[in-house]
Design brief:
It is built from eleven helices and nine strands. The protein has about 350 residues and is of the alpha+beta class. The protein folds into four domains: about 90 residues, Hypothetical Oxidoreductase Yiak, Chain: A, domain 1 (Orthogonal Bundle); about 170 residues, Malate/L-lactate/L-sulpholactate dehydrogenase, NADPH binding domain (Ribosomal Protein S8, Chain: A, domain 1), CATH 3.30.1370.60; about 40 residues, Hypothetical oxidoreductase yiak, domain 3 (Wheat Germ Agglutinin (Isolectin 2), domain 1, 2-Layer Sandwich), CATH 3.30.60; about 35 residues, no CATH class. The longest helix has 19 residues.
Length: about 350
């Protein structure tokens, strides 16, 4: 392979440096800038390109027009030994999320369970980022967030719920279970990645303005109407719709934040109003129940992975395995391979913010 054909690889540390510099350029305090960069490069490192650098420009635009407060610090409005209600004060989602999960962890260690709801938050990236904080402390963790309306309820041709992801994790001995999923068929970032690639959408991902399925990534993006997990009604899409509604009740409704169609639209240009997203962060100490939890979790995962695969070249995985494999692959080749389209966006951003552009391995 000639040097001209070699893929451009960005070291994880370089990706973090670039994104940190972007946030610093729009006056975000360094600790908040680094937390944001850690979150975004963490998504790319794990293979979730839809929630990594792909989101950078949107965050920067929100900060540049002051629809998000990059310096805001969350405050507790009400609490009990096991619960708390937090105001994110329109701060960065990762700042709110890290604070709230750490608070839930502290409560779980004291009384067994910590349940923290936040209002006044913003897009917080990959949901599993916060669950990982609980796993590192030997706790089960869960989080949900509502988002801008993008899901069409079953039988609707307009969006009334967000992608409304949920993440749940459980620690195991030298292992873990880590689920992170949207309650739509896919996250909206997956539509954006198909657009960047210039490729059609699979069936069951999105609707056109008449409420019919579409494979056109451009039309799907402009319509902004994703299908629930499961797709159309005939293939049980109403289950995804129900899960999405549950997430909004746990996060938006419970926290007194915006919910359903009250949440603003969010585009690459940013938004001129505060998101006021609702989020929930839960930590549970498994030692409050039957002893030997982590050993049983290891056995549990082993039984799933041990199932005979239908295709011998594709072993059965458990939630979190795919991300671990992706991190190993990045480590092996020495960097993250971004789409050319993404690199062009970053070059333009570096020029606009007058910062050092990305360098490649």
């Amino acid at each position: 392979m000639s040097s001209a054909q070699q893929p451009k690889l960005v070291a994880v540390a370089e990706s973090k440096r670039f994104m940190t510099d972007c946030f610093l350029a729009v006056n975000v305090p360094r600790d908040h800038a680094e937390a944001m960069a850690d979150l975004l490069v963490g998504a790319d490192y794990r293979g979730h390109f839809s929630h990594g650098m792909n989101r950078l420009e949107m965050y920067i635009n929100d900060l540049a027009i002051n629809s998000t407060d990059g310096a805001a610090v969350p405050v507790i409005l009400k609490e009990t030994p096991s619960t708390a209600w937090v105001d994110g004060r329109n701060g960065l989602g990762v700042v709110v999320g890290n604070y709230c999960m750490d608070l839930a962890i502290k409560k779980a260690k004291a009384v067994g369970v910590g349940w923290v709801c936040a209002k006044g938050s913003n897009h917080y990236g990959i949901a599993s980022w916060y669950v990982l904080r609980a796993l590192k402390e030997g706790l089960m963790g869960m989080t949900t967030t509502n988002t801008s309306p993008l899901m069409a309820p079953t039988r609707s041709k307009e969006a009334a719920l967000g992608t409304n992801p949920l993440s749940f994790g459980a620690p195991a001995k030298d292992d873990k279970f880590l689920l992170d999923m949207a309650t739509t068929a896919v996250a909206v970032g997956k539509i954006e990645i198909q657009r960047r690639k210039g490729e059609p959408l699979p069936d069951g991902w999105a609707q056109d303005p008449t409420g019919n399925q579409t494979n056109d990534a451009e039309l799907a993006f402009s319509t902004g109407c994703l299908m629930p997990l499961g797709g159309p009604e005939i293939s049980s899409g109403y289950k995804g719709y129900g899960l999405g509604a549950m997430v909004d009740i746990l996060s938006g409704v419970s926290a007194g934040a915006n919910y359903s169609t009250k949440v603003r639209k969010w585009t690459h240009a940013g938004a001129n109003t505060a998101a006021d997203l609702g989020q929930v962060f839960i930590a549970v100490d498994p030692n409050c129940f039957a002893p030997g939890f982590e050993d049983r979790m290891t056995d549990f995962n082993g039984r799933l992975r041990g199932c005979e695969p239908s295709d011998p070249s594709k072993p059965v995985l458990v939630a979190g395995d795919k991300e671990d494999l992706n991190m190993k692959a990045v480590d092996t080749v020495g960097g993250i391979q971004y789409l050319e389209n993404q690199l062009k966006t970053c070059a333009a951003l570096a020029e606009r913010l007058n910062i050092k552009p990305l360098s490649f391995n």
